[in-house]
């Protein structure tokens, strides 16, 4: 069973990570095993960053509705002269501790509720084995809220876990994740392009963290629920492991000058690295009590890289290939052109619209969307030519009759008086009116009592001639109207019955052809999505270029059964050397810890445990056989396979760990410590009272900088 997990993010850095992890758990359908809590001193940031509060509980540790000045007087860890800020912690670590302190009732309740739910989850599952719960505390080291609140949070949560989980036999593991701001030139931060207060804060946070790692004689002062303060003795380390991740603030600062989108992408990538690591550990099959049991130091750094196989995109491209059909050859085009011309010959019949729809459906079935797009174009062309031909013939006929009538004695005046009529349809109506009246006049003469036989025969013949002319003209008009109606149907209503198959929303030739063109463009994007791509953290093993156009669910390169990475490789005949190169590259990429955090292992003297390297490879169990031939690539690493039940098929995540670190191995720490001791940190950060960077000044009774910054505290001591 996956270890039930509580994830607490404090401050903006922590909030970003837990939102990413929540999205990851949702994608893998694992949310039932997680509870999320976001803590921040800004209600706005909580509102802006947390997408779904039904999944992530939020706690605003603000000053709202509280007697801040009264509380300040009861908190000796605040520097002299501290006043209410009203805008959150603002990179002030001590004030962040204070805000957590005065809002601890809310935090206790939220954490207790979440732990109770995870306890009940164990009972509900009824799983055998040692019940375990994992708690993550994620925060930034350089900011205010997360950096200053971590020690109090860790101690508080450790106590709550013992009371709620320990009493029922559930073992709790508390893992911290600290996001460390780093400069490009670590040794000389005067060149840093960002707020150097981040670096001073991170040094103070790491120093306090180091004390917590071995809390000899430490205690934590907190506000008591009944008023005043209470001291909590810290008899043991309040966390089991602490993971360090470096964020290049110089790089972020430089990107902000150019492209804000690049900053967001960098942060998203960093958050995914952290979240992937956090997602892997609850799935460790050996039990957390056995995880790294041989490593004494709690400090770990890590990196991550991914190898993906585009299974879903390959299936979608194959489906789209089938829908679009193969490109037409000359013979196909000729046959479709002939079919369009043939339909013109049948278009005088009623119900031709249905005939057109049936023809389009048939073409779609036999030639795909590409064939249909070509066929519709030909329909438009042929029916436009036919309509033009019949309109020209009709207009010429009307014009000829109009001229003939103009030369007749009985119609001459009416025609001349109607010279303003220029449109053929208007002249058509006038001609019918004139001829109809003439036929009626003639018929009255024919029907008179004593018509002369010769005149009667002549008038009857004339009426027959004019009636035949009207019928002919009417037939021409009806045929023209029919073709105009069909052309209008083609332009505005065609493929009404094929919306589902084509995906268009508006009917008619232009809309349908435009939709087909859109799908062709989208398919080009699909082709890119199944091709080799990526560098850095994520790379993709793609479909060989030479067969991309042949992918099909029914045809030449059938991918219906390509549902795992091994079947992907075997179906497309991808060489072992190519896969080996990518796997080896992933291991090397994840090994580049210098990209994340500057590690400079100090001499391992007596009593210093050696640094060890481990790698977790996370994938779906169905994908695991693909890696079997490449065991030799992991020779420098102790490898652990993580196979979550619902993990996305076709995705491999490589998480590299360096274990057994001491803070002295972290350059950002050792350089800042040297600067702090010499006074350079105060100068480069512009902090007059450098001791105020510590949120727990009571832990540094022998530090002159702290004594100077907190005279009231040390006078009372």
Q: Can you tell me about this structure?
A:
There is one protein chain. The protein is elongated and about 145 Å long. It has 23 helices and 15 strands. The strands form three sheets. Strands 1, 2, 3, 4, 5, 8, 9, 10, 13, 14 and 15 form an eleven-stranded mixed β-sheet that branches. It has a two-stranded antiparallel sheet with strand order 6-7. Helices cover 50% and strands 14% of the residues. The protein is of the alpha/beta class. It folds into two domains: 5-254 and 279-297 and 662-716, Rossmann fold (3-Layer(aba) Sandwich), CATH 3.40.50; 326-513, no CATH class.
Shape call: elongated
**Strands, count:** 15
Q: Can you tell me the CATH topology of the largest domain?
A: Rossmann fold
* Termini gap: 50 Å
| Poorly predicted ranges | none
What characteristics describe this protein?
single chain; 717 residues; alpha/beta; Rossmann fold; 2 domains; two-stranded antiparallel ribbon
Care to give the gist of this entry?
By secondary structure, this protein is an alpha/beta fold.
Please render the helix and strand layout as text.
Layout: E1 5-10, H1 11-27, E2 34-40, H2 43-49, E3 56-60, H3 68-73, H4 93-102, H5 104-125, E4 132-140, H6 145-164, E5 171-182, H7 197-213, E6 219-223, E7 229-233, E8 241-248, H8 249-256, H9 260-280, E9 299-308, H10 311-324, H11 330-345, H12 352-406, H13 412-417, H14 424-446, H15 453-492, H16 499-502, H17 509-529, E10 538-540, E11 551-552, E12 557-558, H18 565-571, H19 576-590, E13 612-618, E14 638-642, E15 651-661, H20 667-678, H21 680-685, H22 704-709, H23 711-716
Parallel strand pairs: 1-2, 1-4, 2-3, 4-5, 5-8, 8-9, 9-10, 11-12, 13-14
Antiparallel strand pairs: 6-7, 9-15, 13-15
């Amino acid at each position: 069973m996956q270890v039930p997990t509580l994830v607490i993010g404090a401050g903006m850095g922590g909030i970003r990570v837990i939102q990413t992890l929540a999205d990851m758990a949702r994608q893998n359908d694992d949310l039932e095993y997680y509870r999320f809590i976001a803590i921040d001193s800004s209600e706005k940031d909580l509102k802006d960053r947390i997408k779904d509060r039904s999944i992530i509980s939020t706690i605003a540790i603000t000053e709202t509705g509280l007697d801040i000045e009264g509380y300040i007087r009861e908190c000796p860890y605040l520097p002299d002269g501290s006043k209410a800020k009203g805008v959150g912690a603002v990179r002030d670590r001590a004030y962040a501790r204070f805000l957590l302190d005065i809002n601890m009732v809310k935090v206790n309740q939220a954490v207790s509720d979440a732990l109770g739910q995870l306890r009940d989850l164990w009972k509900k599952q009824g799983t055998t084995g040692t019940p375990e719960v994992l708690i993550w505390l994620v925060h930034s080291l350089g900011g205010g809220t997360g950096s200053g609140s971590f020690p109090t949070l860790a101690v508080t949560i450790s106590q709550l876990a013992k009371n709620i989980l320990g009493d029922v036999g559930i073992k709790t593991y508390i893992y911290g994740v600290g996001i460390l701001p780093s400069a490009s030139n670590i040794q000389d931060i005067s060149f840093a392009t960002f707020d150097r207060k981040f670096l001073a804060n991170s040094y103070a946070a790491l120093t306090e963290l180091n004390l917590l790692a071995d809390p000899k004689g430490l205690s934590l002062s907190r506000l008591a629920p009944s008023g005043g303060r209470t001291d909590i003795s810290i008899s043991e380390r309040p966390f089991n492991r602490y993971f360090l991740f470096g964020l290049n603030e110089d790089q972020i600062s430089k990107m902000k000058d150019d492209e804000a989108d690049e900053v967001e992408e960098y942060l998203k990538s960093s958050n995914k690295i952290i979240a992937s690591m956090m997602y892997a550990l609850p799935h460790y099959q050996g039990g957390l009590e056995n995880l790294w049991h041989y490593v004494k130091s709690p400090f770990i750094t890590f990196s991550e890289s991914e190898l993906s196989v585009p299974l879903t995109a390959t299936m979608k491209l194959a489906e789209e290939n089938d829908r679009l059909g193969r490109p037409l050859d000359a013979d196909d085009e000729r046959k479709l052109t002939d079919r369009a011309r043939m339909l013109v010959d049948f278009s005088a019949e009623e119900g031709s619209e249905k005939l057109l729809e049936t023809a389009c459906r048939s073409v779609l079935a036999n030639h795909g969307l590409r064939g249909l797009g070509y066929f519709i174009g030909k329909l438009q062309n042929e029916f436009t030519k036919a309509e033009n031909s019949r309109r020209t013939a009709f207009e010429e006929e009307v014009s000829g009759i109009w001229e003939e009538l103009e030369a007749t004695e009985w119609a001459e005046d009416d025609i001349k008086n109607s010279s303003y009529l220029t449109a053929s349809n208007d002249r058509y109506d006038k001609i019918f009116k004139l001829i109809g009246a003439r036929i009626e006049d003639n018929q009255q003469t024919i029907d008179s009592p004593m018509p002369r036989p010769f005149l009667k025969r002549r008038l009857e013949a004339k009426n027959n001639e004019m009636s035949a002319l009207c019928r002919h003209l009417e037939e021409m008009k009806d045929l023209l109207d029919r073709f105009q109606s069909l052309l209008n149907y083609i332009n505005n209503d065609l493929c009404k019955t094929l919306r589902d198959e084509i995906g268009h929303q508006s009917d008619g030739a232009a809309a349908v052809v435009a939709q087909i063109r859109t799908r062709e463009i989208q398919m080009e994007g699909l082709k890119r999505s199944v091709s080799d791509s990526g560098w850095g953290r994520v790379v993709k093993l793609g479909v060989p270029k030479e067969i991309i156009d042949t992918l099909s669910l029914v045809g030449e390169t059938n991918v219906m059964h390509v549902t795992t990475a091994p079947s992907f490789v075997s179906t497309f005949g991808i060489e072992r050397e190519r896969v080996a190169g990518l796997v080896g590259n992933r291991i090397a990429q994840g090994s580049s810890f210098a990209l994340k955090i500057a590690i400079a292992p100090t001499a391992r003297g007596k009593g210093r445990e050696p640094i060890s390297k481990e790698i977790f490879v996370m994938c779906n169990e169905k994908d695991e056989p693909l890696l079997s031939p490449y065991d030799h690539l992991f020779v420098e690493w102790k490898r652990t396979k993580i196979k979550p039940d619902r993990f996305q098929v076709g995705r491999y995540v490589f998480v590299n760990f360096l274990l057994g670190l001491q803070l002295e191995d972290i350059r950002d720490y050792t350089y800042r410590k040297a600067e702090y001791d010499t006074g350079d940190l105060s100068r480069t950060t512009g902090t007059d009272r450098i001791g105020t960077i510590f949120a727990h000044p009571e832990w540094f009774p022998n530090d002159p900088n702290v004594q100077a910054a907190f005279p009231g505290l040390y006078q009372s001591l």
